[in-house]
């Protein structure tokens, strides 16, 4: 079931890049951004991660952490961050527990073949732990800038 604006987010506790866990409890009381992406080091996902990284200072200035979540391992995230000098945190959801709870693990189709995967989605969570804004089926171009504008409007 996909989240809606105003919903309380499901809690999460995931392995993060660099061995540091990423937990909803640690983010409580402040807004944060979670962007869900399908796979480390693929063209669209790399562009999205670099876009958020380019704006990392502006998000930090607004005191809003940005976390990328995919089903890849924390080890894969470490390589991805190092290769592209990424400035955003990455969290590994290999079990798909968060992806499913947040409603972004969905049936997809490519070349007529159906499969389960991550629907590229971004969620802005308010300081109250509720969904403030959702961007479903994200198109990467200009997306990080749009999210930053929404953060500044909070």
From TrEMBL:
Occurrences of domain Thioredoxin (ranges): 3-154
Signal peptide extent: none
Q: Name one GO cellular component term.
A: cytoplasm
The source's domain of life comes to Bacteria
Give the reactions, separated by semicolons, that this protein catalyses. Answer: a hydroperoxide + [thioredoxin]-dithiol = an alcohol + [thioredoxin]-disulfide + H2O
Organism from which the protein derives = Prosthecodimorpha hirschii
Q: Which GO terms describe its biological process?
A: cell redox homeostasis; cellular response to oxidative stress
| Enzyme Commission code(s) on record | 1.11.1.24
Pfam families per UniProt:
AhpC-TSA
* Family annotation (PROSITE patterns): THIOREDOXIN_2
Give the protein name, as stated in the record. Answer: thioredoxin-dependent peroxiredoxin
Keywords in alphabetical order: Antioxidant, Disulfide bond, Oxidoreductase, Peroxidase, Redox-active center
- Subunit and partners: Monomer.
Q: What does this protein do?
A: Thiol-specific peroxidase that catalyzes the reduction of hydrogen peroxide and organic hydroperoxides to water and alcohols, respectively. Plays a role in cell protection against oxidative stress by detoxifying peroxides and as sensor of hydrogen peroxide-mediated signaling events.
**What family does this belong to?**
Belongs to the peroxiredoxin family. BCP/PrxQ subfamily.
What GO molecular function annotation could you give as one example from this UniProt entry?
thioredoxin peroxidase activity
